[in-house]
Design brief:
- The structure is a single chain.
- With 447 residues, the protein is an alpha/beta fold.
- It folds into two domains: 202 residues, NAD(P)-binding Rossmann-like Domain (Rossmann fold, 3-Layer(aba) Sandwich), CATH 3.40.50; 217 residues, Rossmann fold.
- The protein is built from 19 helices and 14 strands.
- The strands form three sheets. It has a six-stranded parallel beta sheet, sandwiched between helices.
- α5 links the parallel β4 and β5.
- α1 packs across α3.
- The structure holds nicotinamide-adenine-dinucleotide (NAD).
Length: 447
């Protein structure tokens, strides 16, 4: 795609959202300056190696660097000099009591503000997930103070919450069905719409509202998904104890009749990752702070925290006493096609198995290095799914990787000491596994 020198943007914070957005922007012909404070991360990215695993990211990163359309800098002045738009994509983790920690957004806004002192009009876009009121409140206040300019004339400001999903972040960034823009400033709205139009996302719709309501939409969507998934898992747990009950059949009904989003109609050990638990917690904390009842959100989070334990219960029901048993845990990341362990339900299973005295072997196609930093010598590490099953007395499936889906009953029978499988992700057909001589149980079905 041809370069468009008028369209230069800066991206501040090169994590899952920032790096994937930056390479997609570069792929679509924009000149992109990426700014990241983690030096190790900068060195890796500059070498063309990715600090995170996302399908398609590595190839696109190399192309973006080679073409010169993506370059990294550690200087805000340098990042903003040639860019008419700057996206803030820094992390917004949970702080004490689950409330949002905005320190990285504050730092980024402050540095951007200082750079704006000597520059003419730039549009600042908050893509990080921040609580309603943050863009028009905290971010605007910092930018105005540091730049000594006024929003609207000195610089533009908009919220533009991100909806990409890890594991399909590149695809999602290229195919956004709805672009959410939060601003009351017509110039900022026009500029952001123009940017996304040039990004050529196909049939994107633009949902334009105030910054506060755009921020609300992001939280409401994530909290809705968290509550819905917990609802589905609650029904799945009842199905598990009901002869003939099967959550997939029930979920089909929920999709058709209650219009449940098909992508979120998958029962299992619960939701993890960097968004759903953190954002639901932050919204609950804000509700409490405002004197409102956060009971529904808190219940979803509480149930989600105990859902992984179902796998140990099921193993015990199949006669595996856990203590002293060789248990293999297949999958550690919070979902397939990602290396992200943040709030992973599978990692909760690993911890619970260790606590109950199992001899644990873990394996994950992408999450091993990060897992080793957390679990250390308390577990053994397999080199492949098959290798990690050798001699095991029980296998628990914690992540829905295709490598695990491809395993057959024969693999389990030939490799394990006793072929007992507890499937927290519903990867297999029970009839095939029952015939194959395996003891098999999965969340959401009684048989
Ligand atoms: N990960 C997702 O799937 C996802 C999806 C939608 C929205 N979000 C939201 O997007 C934001 C970013 O999430 P993420 O998962 O990419 O986070 P991340 O932790 O993977 O990346 C954040 C990056 O920002 C860098 N950083 C922090 N402060 C900086 C500063 N002052 N200047 C430059 N770089 C700085 C960090 O070093 C890190 O590399 C969060 O608010 C998150 O809630 C995430």
């Amino acid at each position: 795609m041809a370069d468009n020198p008028k369209q230069s943007v800066a991206v501040v914070g090169l994590g899952y959202v920032g790096l994937c957005s930056a390479v997609v922007f570069a792929d679509r012909g924009f000149r992109v300056k990426g700014l990241e404070i983690d030096r190790k991360r900068v060195r890796m990215i500059n070498r063309g190696s990715t600090p995170i695993h996302e399908p398609g990211l590595k190839g696109m990163l190399k192309t973006a660097l080679r073409s010169g359309r993506l370059s990294l800098t550690s200087s805000y002045e340098d990042a903003l000099r040639d860019s008419n738009m700057v996206f803030i994509t820094v992390g917004t983790p949970s702080g004490p009591n689950g409330a949002i920690d905005l320190r990285y957004v504050r730092d980024a806004a402050s540095s951007i503000g200082k750079s704006l002192r000597t520059l003419d009009y730039r549009l600042v876009v908050v893509k990080s997930t921040v609580l309603p009121g943050s863009t028009d409140g905290l971010v605007k206040t910092i930018l105005e103070k540091e730049s000594r300019k006024e929003e609207g004339t000195g610089f533009g400001l908009a919220a533009n919450p991100e909806f990409l999903r890890e594991g399909s972040a590149i695809w999602d960034s290229k195919h956004q069905s709805t672009v959410l823009i939060g601003s009351s400033d017509p110039t900022s709205i026009r500029a952001l719409k123009g940017f996304y139009r040039n990004l050529n996302l196909g049939r994107s719709r633009y949902l334009v509202t105030s910054a506060t309501n755009a921020e609300f939409i992001k939280y409401a969507v994530n909290a809705y998904r968290a509550v819905t998934l917990t609802f589905l898992n609650t029904i799945a747990n009842i199905c598990s104890r009901t002869p003939g009950g099967d959550i997939d059949s029930v979920a089909r009904g929920l999709v058709d009749i209650a219009k449940l989003d098909r992508r979120y109609a998958k029962a299992g050990i619960g939701f993890g990752g960097s968004c759903l638990p953190k954002d639901t917690r932050a919204l609950a904390a804000r509700a409490t702070e405002l004197g409102e009842n956060a009971g529904l959100l808190e219940a979803a989070l509480r149930i989600n925290d105990t859902q992984p334990e179902k796998t140990l219960e099921m193993a015990k029901n199949l006669g595996v006493s856990i203590k002293g048993k060789k248990v293999t845990l297949l999958g550690l990341t919070f979902k397939a096609n990602s290396d992200d362990l943040r709030e992973s339900r599978a990692m909760l299973i690993a911890r619970k198995l260790i606590k109950e005295g199992a001899v644990v072997t873990v394996y994950d196609p992408q999450g091993m290095d990060k897992a080793a930093e957390i679990l250390g010598s308390r577990v053994r590490y397999g080199t492949s799914a098959k290798a990690s099953l050798k001699g095991a007395e029980c296998c628990i499936i914690g992540t829905d990787w295709d490598e695990f889906r491809r395993l057959t009953p024969k693999d389990y029978v030939s490799l394990m000491a006793t072929p007992v499988i507890v499937d927290g992700r519903r990867l297999y057909r029970p009839s095939t596994f029952a015939k194959g001589g395996v003891q098999y149980a999965r969340i959401g079905s009684a048989d």
